[in-house]
Every structure is written in C-alpha cells, then in structure tokens.
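Chapter review: from sequence to fold.
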Amino acid sequence: MPEFQLPRLSYGAANIGNLHRALTDDAAWELLETAWECGVRYFDTAPHYGLGLSERRLGAFLTTKPRDQFVLSTKVGRLLVPNDRGSDALDLAHDFIVSTHLRREWDFSTDGIRRSLEESLQRLALDRVDIAYLHDPERFGLAAALDTGVPAVTQLREEGLVTAVGIGSMSNEALLAGARTGCLDLLMVASRYTLTDQSAAEQVLPEAVSHGLPVVAAAVFMSGLLATDPPKADGLYEYGALPADVLERTRAIAQVCAQFGTDLPTAALQFPLRHPLVRTVVAGGATPEQVRQNWQRTVTPLPQDLWETLATAGLVTA
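The token string follows.
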C-alpha cells in the first residue's frame, strides 16, 4: 500500500450527510473548515451518507484545497437510484434527515462498482479518490460480494483510478475474509476495536499483521456512548438501545480514566491508536467545537499506567 500520510484523527463525513440532524450547507462547510484548521487531512465519505449529500458537500469543500494535501476515501457496493415511490418521506430508517428521492441498491458486480465510483466522482466534483472501500459486504451476502467485489476494486486500482482498496465493515467475519483474500491494501475496522468492543483483536488484527495491512479505526465512540463523560444511560449503542451490562462496564472504564486525570472520550479516541497497525482514528463531529475537542483529545498525552490498569481490571484487552 502507498504510504499515505494520515493524521492521528481523520474526519468521518456522515454528519455532513445530515446524520441524526439536518445541517445547512454553511454549517457543514464550517465543520470541514474546522477539521482542516486542526490538521485533519484524511476525509472519509460514502454514497450511503445522506443519499449522496455527504459526498456533494465534502467535494465542494475539498475542491478549494490543494489536491496533494489531503487523502480522500469513499465506498462502493451501494448505488443510488431514483426512488419510484417519490420523495415526500425522509430517510429516517437509515438515520439521515434527507429526502428519499433516491434509494440505495446493493451492487457488488464489476459494472456496479465501477459505476459507483464514477457517480461518486461526479458528486464529489473531483477527478479521483485515493481509497475505495467495499462497504458492508456482509449485508449483501458476504461470499457473493467478495467474489465479484474484490476483483472489481483491484481492477480499479490496477487501472490507476484509485490508489488503494480495502473493506469497511462492522463485521469481523467480513473484515477477516477480506484480509484473507490477499488483494486488499487496508481495512477500515468499524466499532470492533474500541474501548467497549475489542473483538477485532482476536482474529482480524492478527490477520492484518500477517498480511501487513494498515488499519483505519472507525466508529470508536460506538454511536455516542463513549463520546460523553459520564456515559448517558439513555444513549445509543451501535445505533440501537444500550445494554445494561455495557453501560455498567463503560462506567467502570470512565472511573479508571478519572483516576488518571482524563475522560472517557479521550481514552476512546486514543485506545485504537496504541496498536501498531492502526494509522488513524476516524471520527465525525456535529459541531465545530466537537471537532476541536476530538483533535485535542487525540494529541493529549495519556499515561501507560491507564491502559495497564484497565487491562488488569479486565476492562480492555492488554
């Protein structure tokens, strides 16, 4: 894989696709400008985010920046097609506050993946992206998606249409299968290497080590649970209800963090970065202040004793 220069914190652009709440174009631009001012130079988006709204807003912003100064990724596997049922409804089933004038259609075929990239480039108004991820192939049917999807994205790489290809998923099975193809350049591990879920450490990360695959850690706040201190009992966890045992464990982690003079969000952002394969942590942010806080949290030194204490208590893997 090319040696991209990735900052410790990267920006996940789901928020500017109106995830959970609607933003104006100006508010979305301010978020992105704040991230840029903080030093963020890797931006991740997808057609899925706001039915293309995230890509359009991100592209409009990045066209004002020197192309050699940022890394951009998007995802393939979901096409956006006209919605014959009309556009009176909002995309609330996917948590995006956007009109459903379009709908998502799974397509991991060679032609579908090429079309997905071409349409993303149109929305971005850019001539290339750096990384293309197969997006959630397990939701289509893992074996079928990888059988056609992996050769399709590697062909895009061979043609020079993208520089690197990978898989982005919350499924350890999908990440492991993708790594074992030996054809990918990196893994985007979403929600599976965090303070509350280190299940990727069992097989996915060792497989990544054996193949020399860098890792991008995403969704490290677990839908918001780890973004506040103390954690909220009525908060979301993996886009759903928060289990009582997870809340109890998270509160225990927060107490240990407090003993070492830090907070839960800071530890959540820095935990994945301790693994030598993790190049960057991707996080969103719905306000400029959240983006600034996230950046500061990733550069705040934390003592090694914090991690050792959490491991000894059985709250995280060593």
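Two observations follow directly from the output. DSSP finds ten helices and ten strands in the chain. The chain has one domain: 9-312.
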